[in-house]
Amino acid sequence: MEWHSFVDLDEYEKLVIRMNTPRVVIDNAVCATSTIVKVDSGSKHRILLEAVQVLTHLNLSIKKAYISSDGRWFMDVFHVTDQNGNKLTDESVISYIEQSLGTAQFVRSGGCDGLTALELTGTDRVGLLSEVFAVLADLECNVVEAKLWTHNGRIASLIYVSDINSASPIEDSQKITGIEARLRQIVKGDIEIRSARTSAYTPVPHIDRRLHQMMFTDRDYERKPVLKQNTETPIVSIQNWAERSYSVVNINCEDRTKLLFDVVCTLTDMDYAVFHATMNASGDRAYMEFYIRHSDGTPINSESEMERVRLCLQAAIERRASEGVRLEFCADDRHGLLADVTRTFRENGLNLTRAEISTTPENAALNIFYVTDALGTPADARIIESVRERIGLENLRVKEMPKIHHQKEDRNEAPVGVGGPFLLSSLGSLVKKNLFNLGLIKSYS
User: Fold this and answer.
1) Ranges for the ACT domain (predicted)?
2) Beta-carbon-side half-sphere exposure of residue 77 (alpha carbons within 13 Å)
């Protein structure tokens, strides 16, 4: 079928286009503490993830969310703030949200076009990233952007590089093969050779989503850390609502930026569809509930599958949890800079648990590192200061100290939310109440 202008279409075709084009409303008047972003359209697979990705791309905090996509219609309502906890007032940000959500455009997480992407997964150890950057410097690769996550003794990293001489992607197949071989040798070390993986290809659309997929494939959720890390274990409970063929997932955990994205991303990549959901962040806690089914419309069908989903969601939440001291590094970029900085960490016994590497168009390096000691416990303040003196007190700054968590003794307590067998039948009332609170209907009684 050949499509011309909108005016050439018949009324039915126009209706289809209107129904499948998301409608976006951004409201700063209804709520005193947050900006409300409403999105509704004809329902389609993965549209929830795409919507959350747009907000995540801007580093916005989602304080509340009401999601419904039963039948053929999809509606999301998000209460969002900026990183400082304020309403959105920047017109360029508001316009970006309207345009991106209004076209359901898939958002990239960074300016990685024209680069070569390197993937690494393997066993975590002190100094690993330092060795990786040293090899890349030796092979005349310029690191433009990179992210590293560690979880349960495993690492996943995406590194975007260009040729140092041309600032273009590395197209020489022999050089790429050589890079992969050198990196694979470093990642595998002396143990678990089969689980070490490296690859090079065109950049992926969303870095964080790819990191989740890499760790999921590596089955980090099944592995146990050598030592208990200083993080809180999220409470995840799952039960089936047989009458409506839903599986109901309740989550109680510490609130943080990008939390909803991490959960929705994991459910989507595990091939579950979210039909209804609520999220409420109060203080430093977040409570979420999801009504999900398989893509074929069936609920979770076994206890073993429930346990797998529970472990995968816990892992997805923990991967981005901030472990260790947060250090921010800023300096003029140069070849080998990352190798030098991370070598200093290694020589002082500091282990990188997370890293976010970026460069600006003005050729400045803007990097964030989370470091612990070699045992995964908080690093000694004297060692941190010694490292800062070697690298430069003005270049490397301490921005955040690790939080101390105290696990609850009773891990079987029911998460706060609307879950529980006696409330499963009230889904319709819940959704109506949410719509009433948002001013979308006049009554829910």
Assistant:
1) 117-198, 326-401
2) 19
pTM metric for this prediction: 0.83
Q: Of 102, 132, 155, at which residue does a domain stop?
A: 102
* pLDDT for the residue 15: 53
Helix (H, G, I), strand (E, B) or coil at 210: helix
Element at 122 (helix H, strand E)? strand 116-123
Which residue has better confidence, 193 or 105? 105
Measured between alpha carbons, how far is residue 139 from residues 170, 174, 176 in Å? 11, 12, 10
Instruction: Provide CB contacts within 8 A for 175, sequence distance 6+.
Output: 139
Q: Which of 42-51, 269-278, 366-375 has the lowest mean pLDDT?
A: 42-51
As a whole number of angstroms, the distance between CA 271 and CA 267 comes to 6
| Of 374, 331, 382, 384, the residue nearest 353 (C-alpha) | 374
Structural domain of 88 = 19-102
Residue 436 one-letter amino acid: F
- Residue 174 buriedness (CB in 10 A; 0-12 / 13-18 / 19+): exposed
Q: Decide if 57 is inside a domain.
A: yes
For the record, the structure tokens of 167 come out as: 């600032």
pLDDT cut 70: percent of the chain above it: 76
Q: Are residues 140 and 216 in the same domain?
A: yes
